[in-house]
Sequence to fold (178 residues):
Amino acid sequence: MWKKVPLEVKLEALKLLQSGESFQSVSKRLRICSGELKTWSLIYEKEGEQGLASYPKNVCTDNIKDKIICRYQEKRVPLHTLSAKYHVPYSSVIHCISTYRRKGEAGLRGAVINMMDVMRSGDTFEEALTKAELKHQLKVAKNELEYLRAENAYLKKLKALMEADEKRKRSGSKPSSH
Fold:
């Protein structure tokens, strides 16, 4: 599991790099991935100590995953650059790219592919990916439908309460006929 590295360790690593040590030697000495060191270096150059202290700011949401995959595919941007740009852990960028390579868009979205089912069905891996993606989209759509139905019921109750309140106000504000 990923753990946040204290700012002091990040600054120590950057001092070692500035003194002329290589990314590889600092990586070995501090037991930190060299890609993560490169990310810290980029962030420190752009945002200084404050940016480094707040890194990572983001979790790797679907929106950020889409941006990472798009940038990586179109320009082969280095992973540490993507990590710094989107303020997500370097390991999350690696995981995102490797999942996309292995499982495609469906795997990136959380669709599960059971290889035993693929072998039994006789489908190709691409067909299984398509089916898994469709199953995942169906699950997402069902969850969204359930949420929208609950929201609709809530809004109907709210409307009824507002109408009752308006009716009560109108009946209470009529002038007396006596």
Notes: Residues 20 and 66 are 36 Å apart (CA to CA). Residues 125-172 form the longest helix (48 residues). The helical segments are 7-18, 23-30, 34-54, 62-75, 79-86, 90-108, 115-121, 125-172.
